[in-house]
Amino acid sequence: MPDRVKVGIIGSQFEADIHAESFRILPDDAEVVAVASPTPGHAEAFAKKHAIPRFFTDYRKLLAERDIEMITIAAPNYLHAQMTVDAANAGKHIVCEKPLCMTLDEADLMIDACRQRGVLLMYAEELFFTPKYVKAKQMADQGAFGKVYMVKQLEKHFGPHAAWFWDVEKSGGGVFMDMGCHGIAFCYWFLGRPKIKSILCHMGTYVHSERTRGEDDSICIIDFENGAKGVIEDSWARRGGMEDRIEVYGEGGVCYADLHMGNALPTYSEYGYGYAVEKAPSTKGWSWPVFEELWNYGFPQEMRHFARCVRAKESPKATGEDGRVVQQAIFAAYASAGKGAKVTLPFRPQGAKCPIDLWLRP
């Protein structure tokens, strides 16, 4: 197909698989031509699995490929900033997975580097593209619920796939760093990007204390300048598989959207079967297998959109600046949990190497 954006993926684990498969589902605007991963054998195996012609163990060699126009970063959080700067210096447009980085200084560095080099920095927040959630926002914007006074986003399961998530030196935090970033971004986007006034957050480690110093459960309340509240619940301590849903409350209506249940087949099996849904621990007994999983999450639509932005066919719906808003809120949330008190924004901590420092060492 002519004029497709040539894409390189940095990473070879769970999220990189999603990126590659998403480009395959909607192939008209982009094609993946290279992958890089430092782990011996991973890049080659990933390339073979997804029919990608080139693979590298050093992402800088991928960046040196002249035909690659856009890269997606699906690497551990602590690597995002340097990879973004290197990609910008190589003239590549960038899709960076959430959360954007580890610190606000890194966020500013990433944004400035991309601006100076004239490349796009796009923030991979798939909830902006999740069909159910997009429909809920469309109805809200049309006035279906009147003045919206509260939006809730909840995501819970029993823990992440890759080992680095459990290492706070590499991840920057626990479940709130991993998934609270989704909730912050969703509430901010759904309400029309109002300024955040304050954040109150509670965190605890209830199940996985032997695996991580990070929190495995959190609840956060955000006060927005327009008077609305965002409520965000996240957990790595929930058994029984994945839960992902939103609730919208307005003075004239209400809306509920469960990401999985409306797209699932209630199933009972004595014997089990192959795959049900992300994070499902077993397929024996009752399970809820989903269909068109990535489409219902919004990943293919997200990647197509970013490719079209490179061709100036669309304007980015999720930017580095959005990621920075989320990053500031993440820091405020950890500080709130550490102090046991509400934190007002703007908020820029001094001396914290990563958000969780403000909870572990308040």
Question: What key attributes describe this structure?
Answer:
about 350 residues, alpha/beta, Rossmann fold, Dihydrodipicolinate Reductase, domain 2, about 35% helix
How does this structure look, described?
This protein has a seven-stranded mixed beta sheet with strand order 12-11-7-10-9-8-15. It has a six-stranded parallel beta sheet with strand order 3-2-1-4-5-6, sandwiched between helices. The chain has two domains: 142 residues, 3-Layer(aba) Sandwich (Rossmann fold); 187 residues, Dihydrodipicolinate Reductase, domain 2, CATH 3.30.360.10. The model has no long low-confidence stretch (mean pLDDT 96). With 362 residues, it is an alpha/beta fold. α4 packs parallel to α5 and α5 packs antiparallel against α11. It starts with a strand and ends with a helix. It has twelve helices and 15 strands. α5 links the parallel β5 and β6. The radius of gyration is 20 Å and the shape is globular.
